[in-house]
């Protein structure tokens, strides 16, 4: 099977996870029950997932000149991700996500830090990596001008772009026009199209509003994808024992990009992506649960059509 070349341009964070029986009120101190530091950031997560699924991956992003930055770069290298375009930024802190877990519910504060230093100029420095890629994979945890520049350069060389529009913002039509496949969840789809997700139309109507190719993820229900001819197809989810859903979306996006890089059609690519996502929730941690190519192939081989 072809080893696709994927260039991921995006965020690199350290997740600081505190577990507590309850969140303290202002001025109060409570005793927590656990603490861990886990590599994260949508960009880095998707890069790791692509590498485990058999792709040749180049990561483009920024970290701080601190201990977290050095550790995250080392983690990416250990996952066989090329970090030639990951730049340590002097006098900047590495991006972090402070996550408080209270009885399974998350409260998250994200401090972008060095991720804000991913500028259009930084993206231009990685033009060769974009040119050589089979797919460019993007998210929105770096500044939008950098995302737009990546889309522009990829278009210059005819490289397809997969855009995961998270965190959700309304996106310019000219940016979306340069994207091969956009991959929102239902909430992100409404925001992306500048609609109120609380007062939105049925998601089928939203899918029809978007003129391009789209894969909308829907948790345990799998995914719905719209093709160029306007038809919408449902890929059902796969039943698994859920341990931790963190990173499922990143795994799904990575798997889709890998399959597009291999030349698969949307039906095969989405089915593979939903299967990889299902496997990812059977283990703890965003990157910890990401499956290998062999695991996904074995899983799909056991499913009766």
Architecture overview:
It contains 11 helices and 13 strands. With 305 residues, the protein is of the alpha/beta class. It has one domain (42-94, 113-301): Ribokinase (UDP-N-acetylmuramoyl-L-alanine:D-glutamate ligase), CATH 3.40.1190.20. A hairpin with a 5-residue loop joins strand 11 (213-217) and strand 12. Helix 1 crosses helix 9 (248-261). It is globular, with a radius of gyration of 19 Å. 47% of the residues are buried.
For the record, the count of structural domains works out to 1
Q: What pattern of helices and strands is seen along the backbone? A: EEEHEHEEEHHEHEHEHHEEEHHH
The biggest sheet amounts to: 9 strands, mixed
Structural class: alpha/beta
Strand arrangement within the widest β-sheet reads 5-4-1-8-9-10-11-12-13
Q: What's the overall average pLDDT, rounded?
A: 93
Number of helices: 11
CATH topology: UDP-N-acetylmuramoyl-L-alanine:D-glutamate ligase
Quaternary structure: single chain
Helix content: 25-40%
Describe the global form: globular
Q: What proportion of the residues form beta strands (DSSP E)?
A: 15-25%
CATH superfamily: Ribokinase
Rg computed from alpha carbons, rounded to a whole number of angstroms: 19 Å
């Amino acid at each position: 099977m072809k080893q696709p070349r994927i260039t991921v341009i995006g965020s690199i964070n350290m997740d600081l996870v505190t577990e507590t029986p309850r969140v303290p009120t202002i001025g109060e101190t409570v005793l927590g029950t656990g603490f861990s530091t886990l590599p994260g950031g949508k960009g880095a997560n998707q890069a790791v997932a692509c590498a485990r699924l058999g792709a040749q991956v180049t990561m483009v992003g920024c970290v701080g000149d601190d201990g977290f930055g050095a550790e995250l770069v080392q983690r990416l290298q250990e996952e066989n991700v090329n970090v030639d375009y990951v730049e340590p930024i002097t006098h900047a802190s590495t991006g972090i996500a402070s996550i408080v877990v209270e009885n399974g519910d998350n409260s998250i504060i994200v401090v972008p830090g060095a991720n804000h230093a991913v500028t259009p100029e930084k993206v231009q420095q990685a033009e060769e990596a974009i040119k050589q890629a089979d797919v460019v994979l993007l998210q929105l945890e770096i500044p939008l001008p950098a995302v737009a520049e990546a889309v522009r350069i990829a278009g210059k060389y005819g490289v397809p772009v997969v855009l995961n529009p998270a965190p959700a913002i309304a996106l310019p039509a000219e940016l979306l026009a340069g994207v091969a496949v956009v991959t929102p969840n239902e909430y992100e789809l409404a925001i992306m199209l500048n609609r109120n997700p609380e007062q939105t139309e049925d998601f089928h109507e939203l899918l029809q509003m978007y003129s391009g190719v789209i894969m909308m993820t829907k948790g345990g229900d799998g995914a719905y994808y719209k093709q160029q001819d306007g038809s919408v197809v449902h890929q059902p989810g796969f039943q698994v024992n859920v341990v931790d859903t963190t990173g499922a979306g990143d795994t799904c996006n990575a798997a889709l990009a890998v399959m597009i890089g291999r030349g698969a059609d949307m039906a095969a690519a989405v089915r593979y992506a939903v299967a990889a996502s299902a496997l990812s929730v059977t283990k703890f941690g965003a990157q910890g649960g990401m499956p290998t190519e062999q695991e996904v192939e074995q899983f799909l081989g056991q499913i009766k059509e």
